[in-house]
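Hi R.,

Here's the chain you asked about this morning:
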Amino acid sequence: MDAFEAIRTLLAVRSYQDKPVPDAVVRRIVEAGRLTGSGMNGQPWHFIVIRDGATLRRLGALASSGSYVAQAPLAIVVATDKTRFAVSDASRAIQSMLLAAWAEGVGSNWVGFGGLEKVKAGLDVLAILPFGYPARAVGRGKKQRKPLREVAHLERYGRPFE
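And here is the predicted structure, written out as tokens:
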């Protein structure tokens, strides 16, 4: 799948097949995060790969907005150093990982962005990303988004980009 097609069709996946994600795909997902650009090349992120079922269940219980983490075969906890660009840089890495996974047929969703204080990683936890093969077919590309003319402007705000 090319990059634009992955962006166009990426949807949140919250239920997963009971099927492990192969090591090569996991490595590709983590590499996508690692290779993402960051402010002043600070790379203020840490990716904690979780496959242990008991740990996934504990994370699901701790994540108020993402109990479904407990059913995923894999999760990556994204934690950051306390630096000026950490949140924006790690957010970029998260999007890279979500797109790399989607291109491999693996779904995910961003869990957290606040509310993860109980997840102790020794760092600031920004997100938990559960990963797995979607439990049911998802409508690839069927998104509810504002029309381009409402969000893109030409030369100045208010002049539609068409």
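One quick note: The longest helix spans residues 86-103.

Cheers,
M.
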